[in-house]
Amino acid sequence: MDQENTMKDWEQPYTDAANEILREAESARAKFAPFNSSHEGYAVIAEELDELWDDVKGNDVPHAIEEAVQVGAMALRFIADMRAKYGRLSDGALARIAREAEADR
Question: What is the superkingdom listed in this entry's lineage (predicted)?
Fold first, then answer.
């Protein structure tokens, strides 16, 4: 196998983690409807992050890793669901949505 086709030593753990996050996101997608709003998506991510923090504070590294996968999966889902709802947004469209959100507060 030539050098270009071999994975660098540091790449495999990242590839494994990314694949685990993707599997978790796919599982969540099969079980739950898409996020209705960015606020809902944020709340789910925040909940998962709080669970991760609890495990970190408790020094429960194996469970913290599982929660980190959940955080990653929900972040991935947030991106996919919001892009499905709003499309890939230009800087101008992003600014407009931010202004509208600010006006709604």
Answer: Bacteria
Question: Residue 5 has what DSSP assignment?
Answer: G
Per the CB < 8 A criterion, the answer to whether 41 and 77 are in contact is: yes
pTM, two decimals, is: 0.77
Instruction: Check if the beta carbon of residue 52 is closer than 8 Å to that of residue 68.
Output: yes
Domain parsing of the chain, residue ranges: 36-105
What type of residue sits at position 52? L
Where b means 16+ CB within 10 Å and e means fewer, 25-53 reads beeeeeeeeebeeeeebeebbeebbebbe
Check: CB of residue 65 under 8 Å from CB of residue 16: no
Lookup: tokens for 97? 């949505």
Two tokens at 7?
A: 């994975």
